[in-house]
Amino acid sequence: MIVPDFRGQQALNAWLAGHDAGVLLQGPDPDSPHPVMNGVVVAQEPRPGTRVARWEPVTVWIRHDPDDGSGVREPSDPVPPLRALKAERGDLPESNG
User: Fold this and answer.
1) Which residues does the annotated region (Disordered) include (predicted)?
2) Which domains does the chain have, with CATH numbers?
3) Nearest Cα to 43, choosing from 1, 5, 17?
4) By C-alpha distance, which of 6, 22, 5 is closest to 57?
């Protein structure tokens, strides 16, 4: 198998591409409880273009950027309903009931 260039890829996409190419991606600590799934691949060993045996491990180093925009997309402070904002400002007509 020829080792593909995984650098710059999202970790999960790199892992899937490695599987399709017949190599196994792993982090620098293979016994780590954290799988290679999040972040961007910044380095790898063996280098791209190296010939290896099928299912040979390829070690990848991942950059985990907390501000990369991935992850939860919901606001951390929910926006109140429009009518609640109007009531707070006093924009709603008072009910006489």
Assistant:
1) 63-97
2) 1-64 (3.30.10.20)
3) 5
4) 22
